[in-house]
Fold these 3 entries.
Entry 1:
Amino acid sequence: MQKILLYEQVSEIEPFVSKRACTLLHRPQLESFIGIDKFNLVVFNWYDLHSRMKKSPQVAICFDSDDIFFLCENEEALAMVKKIIAEQTQEQPLSNEELLYHFFMRLLRNDVNYLNDYEMLITEIEDRMVAGLQKDYLTKIISYRKDLLRLKRYYEQLGFVFEELTANENSLLSANGVQLCNILSRRTDRLFASAVNLRDYIAQVLDAYQSQLDYHQNNLMKIFTVVTTIFLPLTLLVGWYGMNFDMPELHSAYSYPIVIAVSAFIVAALIIVFKKKKWM
């Protein structure tokens, strides 16, 4: 028997599973994989690559040698599972092992292309950042990091499930079923490695963005420092001749032009020195 239900309909499958399995299914928190006697329970949080859902709905798959049941946390996950099962069984009926294999293969079908497109997006962000054509880099980078973290966790949990199925400790799966789970495990490992590499890549882009910000800030501070240094001697002159003393040079007819000339000379000399040292 193959059946797709919501979590609240779990009582409908109780006649077909053992009492111990029923007890497990009524737990508020289910482990990713439980294998007892001739019964396996697989639990994972479904991550829709094309959805912006903040919470990934949970899907549980209970199966033994005769029956397989899909339990979904919400209506969206239920519709997704029904669609996939209908696609896989429309040509011919599948055994439980084959259905399990084709279900997960369908879930992971376009993930490689999705990750490749994601890499192109990150590369485009990096190019535009270097060229200075875009300003909201930080928002996009943080958004990409969150998405890739969810994706990494998604592949991580699936990898754990497939490893446990491949181990086949309760001997529920046939040799062919173990081989199919091994294929799924290797595929998930590659996807997990790609997601980790993309997270490393986005971290490098973030570091490059931070370095670019630091570079611009340093240039700005250098400009302020140069301007301050140029006008510091003039500030000294203002302070000196602003004192309330009777200075002899103030009575000369040439004192004012001389002060102007000295000030201009100081500014010009400092500008020449800074340009030679490439500080300007």
Entry 2:
Amino acid sequence: MDRRRGAAILFVAPFLLCFVAVTIVPLAYAAALSLFTEKASGLGFGPAETVFAGVDNYVRALSDPAFRGGFLIIAAYCLVYLPLMVGGALVLALLLDSAAAKMKRLLQLALFLPHAVPGLIAAIIWVYLYTPGLSPIVALLEWDFLASDHVLLSVVNIATWEWIGYNVIIFYAALQAVPREILEAATVDGARGLRLAFAIKVPMIRAAVVMAGLFTVIGAIQLFTEPKIINRAASTVSSSWTPNMYALTAAFERHDYGLAAAASMLIALLGAVLSFAVTRATARRSSR
């Protein structure tokens, strides 16, 4: 038993060390930094002093309309992005898993290939395609992708292009694990086409769908790369358009590191709460 325990610790130790180094330590440092602020001494001519601020930085972040507005944008983004991403990936995976699908390997590669492109490069490519005077698509469709009414959909399009192939692979792998005898029995009972897909296959991979939905929401909360690149090309995306962009602006443009750390901790807390809520709800539903 001791040898098994030692072997288990040996295998788990590298992960724990990396997890502590890249997750726990930065979170602890950000939490400590969020409790302090810098104030100029005297008439403002002396060096700034770091003073304990308590929860003042959190209050400042939550009372700032720009920070709260970023979460409203994330909510609108999720309303469009989540069903498009999860629903679209699920439909594509079901099509790949169907008996009528041809060249499955080639289709999997084609769908996954955009995910292999770094997010920064993908955003730059799409900004060129969105820019009037540079893009043939804008002239052809006569549509301003960077207008204030359209820019959210443009960001959703970039993220969907990047990530839908990743989710297709997850769902397709889950579909391949569905016992064939269950599908054969359903077919014998008369299940065909859409009924077989949505009444038999989808419930069998519910865990994978929930996991993909959870990761999609967490990724949406951390939305940064796509709007940051668009911010360089259009004024419709401000420097505090999302909560992550707000934290970056507070840290590196306003040099208010306490406020930036507090905003980051609030973003992390929201992600943790959503993860816990979805996991708890899924566990309760599975136990019924």
Entry 3:
Amino acid sequence: MPFRKIASFLAAFILAVLPAMAAQSDFPHYWDGREHVAKPDLSTVERIRFVTTVDYPPFNFVDATGRISGFNVDLARALCNELGVTAICQIEARPWDELQPTLESGEAEAIIAGLKPTAALREKFAFTAPYIRLPARFMALKETSFAEPFADTLKQKTIGVIAGSVHQAIFADYFPNSHWVGFPTRELMFRDLQAKKIDAVFGDGSDLSFWIGSPEAKDCCAFVGGPYIAPQFLGEGMMIATTLENQKLVDAFDFALKAIEEKGITSELYLRYFPVDFY
């Protein structure tokens, strides 16, 4: 689907669902309220240019007006506003394979595009604390009962997963005595769920949240059970990357991330782009 169509769908979906969901967010707190994070002096910083992509909605995409939009984009703006450096902040779109070279060459100061902090990347870049994690979730027809204890109930159910996916690996590891069926595509998996050929699906919570609210779902389904963070499979979460020499910016971003979380700004952005809460 073209990016403009994706953006238009997201905008319409958000406007329709947000009023009903605004008070129901379980967005987690990543910062300990007692933890002190000092605000660095950025008076000598002349520019803070973020680079991102436009192919990862709703985190970063081109909206119907042709502007760069998304959760990551609005988060970057909120951080700059919190730090009082809006005048020197810029956000630029680049292809994914150009993000790291752009940062290393000094053409940008930060990557905000879901770059995972692998051991190899930590040797080249500095990373902030995570600002969002994308948990795995179960989704089932609203009429399907999942009694507690949840893990025992799963043993009597058939669960759909995308074959060969990380979520298949998580399910097999966490629920070794439960039965799963692999599907080549999410469309086939969702179709079999609606046809009651399987009892639930297990996958990326953010992706499932959009399907739950989509016209194709016909209000059939809801999340069951809790979120599975599974860092050993899904990583540490989404972070902002800078060069190792720019640790001051990492400290500044961490200060701002903590501040906007405490003010509820991060949660507001989350519900703006993910009206169906996946936590």
